[in-house]
Amino acid sequence: MEWAKENATWPLAQHSRFVVCKPHRWHIQDIGSGPTLLLLHGAGGSTHSWRHLIPYLNHYRAVAIDLPGQGFTRLGAQRRCKLDAMAEDIIALLNAENLRPAAIIGHSAGAAIALRVAERMPVPQIIGINAALDTFHGVAGVLFPLLAKAIATLPFAASVFSATASQGQTVDRIIKGTGSTLSTADRAYYRRLVASSDHVHGTLQMMAQWQLEPLLSRLPEHGTQTILIAAENDKAVPPQTTQHIAAHMPNAQAIMIPHLGHLAHEEDAGAIAPHILNALTPQTQTKASTI
User: Fold this and answer.
1) I need a labelling partner for 86 at 20 to 30 A (CA). Which of 26, 94, 114, 272 fits?
2) Tell me, which fold does domain 5-134+213-283 have in CATH?
3) Nearest to 133 by CA among 265, 277, 34, 252
4) 141: burial class by Cβ within 10 Å (0-12, 13-18, 19+)?
5) pLDDT per residue over 177-223, tens digit each?
6) 8 A C-beta contact, residue 61 and residue 31
7) Model's pTM, two decimal places?
8) What is the largest CA-CA distance in the chain?
């Protein structure tokens, strides 16, 4: 997706800018002042997914980025969609922009990326929303990654999926399958994303290259202060996963939210924001209150 006049209606477009930091051309939304909070969306999302939450973070500098190949970030290298590669490239971007996050807030797969970033550079705190910190089990654990890789390598696969899925009820069914209920306007942004074959291609590449096991094996030694928020109606990542992961990390806490689904921060940002603000470290809160 290229930035043009028609994208002036994209959420928070007035705060968008582009940064070339090899190998990608990054889309960044930089909003507010105070301690920096880095916001990382999940697979298939974009900066738009934070549109309802960011107004609650008004004492912070919220920096939201589109992951490589997704949203409006142009993918510069096909093999840089792996967990480790994305973390490395995000760190390079942070260094280039002289950004030192006081916390990283990640949704779904974005939480896994946040934890990997924290292994490579000092990050005081990670806050995950419905963190995707589990793998498929049994036959699905074998077939799903293979299927994603096969689809990602098929010529025109992204274009065909984009052309078909952006029409009809496909996007609505996918969102409903997460356990979340979004407004018509909110669902329309996902249709616009799916209408981009570049975005679909980037998402498929991320799915095809995703390998979580090494990170999961290290979590029992992961010392970063971590808050994992889980919604009880999440149909994509069972909330029990969050409880299990938090129990096996030395400095983690699980917070359970009733009713909401996988896209909880889009569904009801007002219900999620107090938990995020309360979870931020006292040092960060003190700095924010003095800005």
Assistant:
1) 272
2) Rossmann fold (3.40.50)
3) 252
4) exposed
5) 899 999 999 999 999 998 898 998 899 889 888 899 999 999 999 99
6) yes
7) 0.90
8) 54
Structure tokens at 50: 């934070």
Does pLDDT of 160 surpass 70?
no
pLDDT of residue 159: 61
Q: Is the omega angle on the peptide bond into residue 250 within 30 degrees of 0, that is, cis?
A: no
Could you tell me which of 235, 219, 116, 19 has the C-alpha nearest to residue 3? Answer: 19
- Distance in angstroms (rounded) separating the CA atoms of residues 29 and 99: 13
Domain ranges of the chain: 5-134+213-283
User: Is residue 91 within 8 Å of residue 85, measured between CB atoms?
Assistant: no
Phi, psi of 154 (to 5 degrees): -75, 135
60's tokens: 């912070």
Whose tokens are 């409903």? That residue is: 176
Residue type, 160: V
Question: How large is the C-alpha radius of gyration of the chain?
Answer: 18
Helix (H) or strand (E) holding 250: none
- Cα 162–chain centre separation: 21
Q: Distance between CA atoms of 275 and 24, rounded to whole angstroms?
A: 33
Is the pLDDT score of 10 beyond 60?
Answer: yes
Q: Which two tokens stand for residue 163?
A: 């052309």
Residue 268's pLDDT is what?
98
Q: How many Cα atoms sit within 13 Å of 106 on the Cβ side?
A: 28
Per-residue pLDDT of 222-233, as tens digits, reads 999 999 999 999
Give the strand pairing for 103-107 and 125-129. Answer: parallel
Contact 31, 229 (CB under 8 A): no
